[in-house]
Write a structure and sequence with these properties.
Number of helices: 3
Strand content: 25-35%
Shape: globular
Largest sheet: 5 strands, mixed, barrel
Number of strands: 6
Order of helices and strands: HHEEEEEEH
């Protein structure tokens, strides 16, 4: 009986934590240790002030990964070209973020094993403000924030 119960609990744990067939995380409450903007900057592979120029949402407008085309206004850390694409899950309870075309953000991103950029709610990406950029970097943004 104990063996059966242990097997069921292990199986349930695997199912709950497993990604879906499309490689998209299962919907679950997002939990992470966010830290201060400075701590998030230290953990990021790429830190930049960016403007979203194009958005490709998942088919059907539901859960999945969105791809955001970015103009890099100011590179603050890491290796990123003048234009970049970042991937983000779209549902907040799956740690997703939604970025809006034409808006400027302070991008905190991680590189996956192939060099593609990914950002999440836990990464710290948020609307750029002069005070946020100054607090994180100690410098003033050279471009106008939108």
């Amino acid at each position: 009986m104990r063996l059966l119960l242990a097997s069921l609990l292990v199986g349930l744990g695997v199912l709950v934590g497993a990604p879906t067939a499309q490689g998209v995380p299962c919907s679950q409450t997002c939990s992470c240790v966010r830290g201060t903007p400075q701590q998030q900057a230290e953990r990021a592979d790429v830190l930049a002030v960016v403007t979203v120029t194009d958005v490709a949402l998942p088919g059907g407008g539901g859960a999945g990964y969105a791809y955001y085309r970015l103009d890099v206004d100011q590179r603050l850390g890491g290796d990123v070209s003048r234009t970049a694409t970042v991937r983000a899950y779209t549902v907040s309870d799956g740690c997703g973020v939604r970025l809006m075309r034409g808006r400027t953000y302070l991008l905190y991103a991680q590189e996956d094993g192939r060099g593609a950029l990914l950002t999440t709610l836990c990464s710290g990406t948020r609307r750029a403000t002069p005070s946020l950029v100054l607090a994180v970097t100690g410098s003033v943004v050279l471009t106008a924030l939108r």
